[in-house]
Design brief:
The complex is a heterodimer of chains A (about 260) and B (about 200). Chain A has 10 helices and 12 strands. Chain A has about 260 residues and is an alpha/beta fold. In chain A, β11, α8 and β12 form a beta-alpha-beta unit. The radius of gyration of chain A is 18 Å and the shape is globular. In chain B, about 25% of the residues lie in helices and about 30% in strands. Classes of the chains: A alpha/beta (about 260), B alpha/beta (about 200). At the A-B interface, α2, α3 and α5 of A face α1, β6, β7, β9 and α6 of B.
């Protein structure tokens, strides 16, 4: 049997990812500030199509519907988006069980994000990892800044827990999460820049990829989060509002010497 | 003339919908199956895989698909293996010690080094060899913690690096096995799927 020696390979680091996020409710994209005051921001399929064409590396859909009816909309939305989407799709919002996750995956998600239910029953993370694979399970951590640390908040930012966010991300990793979606509750929707100290603290603690979320306004913000240790950067408002585009942000990153998918 | 038939093996894979959608965008109606006859008779077969090495082998074995897949590979008939679908072609994996793979290639499936970000989750540059027919240079989406470390004679490899060099894809005639997910690799992945499908 022959063995072929690897050729010299140009790129030695995984490219950093830019991930637009669609918060959806009842089949529409919505966006608020610090999880409140949601306003309509468009059609999920139209926005997904635009962001994909702009060079988005993945798409995130977080469903914030509060009702069963709304959730049914979410499944239909995922099916519609999947039809047109040729990049990875992560879906979260109200995932409480392996059955919930299975339904999202069957509808067309590639990864599933868990948040409040995983916090209440951490064994859910391991159950999902064993059933669907570690690379499929994203632990979504909503963190609020305290004096010298960050506190986990759950139920869409409404319930404080006293749990340290860095510790919780680390526990999530050891239980089988393949990625951490790290959202600064204080910065969400504010365009005040990512909470860089939070990004650095979690990135230093876990080996799985960390997605920085909450506060993006410019390419400089994305660059700062990547330099703080983020493997990927997520943004929503700035794309929905047409303040900038994925292509424009990636150009800034390339100029700064960050490897991205062209 | 009967239309081309494309069977997608249900490996208990989490992202079957993405694979089906990718072919649907090409105007190809791919049919999910767990039937060995489909694996033998379809014009083209896709073997996706997400989850764990041992679990996928267990399912293939329970569904009586091991022989059908082995025969198809031996006969040189069109097949596309994706992600874990590539890894199960090997004899074993560090992921599931004791579980036997299909044993069609001799390389080892190893875990990325302890110093690496694992899983590898994102877009990485694929460098084709000089004789690749399907795979061209570009960025592909990977989601894996384990990798194939070498290639047998008779197969042409494309490589990538995630701290260590690893096999991004191998191909031999109309048979293609990718560590990355072509169905999630944007226009680059779509054109790869089109080239492979044209060989069915």
């Amino acid at each position: 049997m022959g063995r072929v020696a690897p050729r010299a390979v140009v790129c030695v680091v995984l490219t950093r990812r830019v991930i637009p996020c669609l918060d959806t409710r009842d089949g529409r994209v919505v966006k608020g500030v610090r999880f409140k005051g949601l306003r309509d921001a468009g059609s999920p399929v139209e926005l997904a199509d635009r962001y994909q064409a702009d060079g988005a590396d993945e798409l995130m859909i977080l469903d914030v519907s509060a009702t069963t009816e709304g959730r049914a909309h979410a499944l239909a939305t995922i099916r519609d988006v999947r039809r047109i989407l040729a990049i990875p799709l992560t879906v979260g919002g109200g995932v409480r069980s392996a059955a919930d996750a299975g339904a999202l995956l069957e509808a067309g998600a590639d990864k599933v994000a868990v948040n409040t239910a995983a916090f209440r029953s951490p064994e859910l993370i391991g159950i999902l990892a064993r059933q669907f694979g570690q690379q499929c399970v994203v632990l979504s951590v909503d963190a609020a800044a305290r004096e010298r640390s960050w506190e986990v908040v759950v139920r869409a930012g409404t319930e404080a827990t006293t749990r340290d966010a860095v510790e919780w991300a680390s526990e999530g990793e050891s239980r089988g999460a393949g990625e951490v979606l790290l959202t600064s509750v204080d910065r969400d929707g504010t365009q005040a820049g990512y909470d860089l100290a939070l990004v650095a603290a979690v990135s230093e603690r876990v080996r799985v990829p960390v997605v920085a979320s909450g506060g993006a306004r410019s390419g400089a913000d994305l660059l700062a989060a990547i330099r703080a240790g983020a493997d990927a950067v997520l943004a929503a408002s700035i794309f929905h509002d047409g303040i900038t585009s994925v292509a424009e942000l990636k150009a800034t990153l390339i100029e700064a010497g960050i490897e991205v998918r062209p | 003339m009967t239309p081309m038939s494309l069977a997608v093996v249900e490996t208990g894979s989490a992202n079957l919908a993405s694979v089906l959608a990718a072919f649907q965008r090409m105007g190809v109606a791919a049919a999910p199956t767990r039937d060995a006859e489909d694996v033998r008779n379809a014009d083209g077969v896709v073997l996706p895989g997400v989850g764990a090495f041992g679990d996928v082998m267990q399912r293939l074995s329970t569904r009586g698909l091991v022989d059908a897949l082995t025969e198809r590979f031996a006969a040189g008939r069109p097949i596309l293996a994706v992600c874990l679908g590539l890894q199960v072609l090997a004899t074993a994996s560090e992921e599931s010690p004791g579980a036997a793979g299909l044993g069609l290639i001799s390389g080892s499936v190893r875990r990325y080094p302890a110093s690496s970000t694992v899983p590898q989750l994102g877009w990485n540059r694929v460098e084709p060899g000089s004789r690749n027919g399907f795979v061209r240079g570009g960025h592909a989406f990977f989601a894996n913690s384990y990798y194939l470390d070498s290639v047998d004679d008779g197969w042409t490899a494309a490589w990538a690096t995630h701290d260590v060099p690893f096999v991004a894809a191998i191909e031999r005639g109309p048979q293609l096995a990718c560590q990355f997910h072509p169905e999630l690799s944007g226009p680059w992945g779509a054109s790869l799927l089109e080239r492979w499908y044209a060989s069915c």
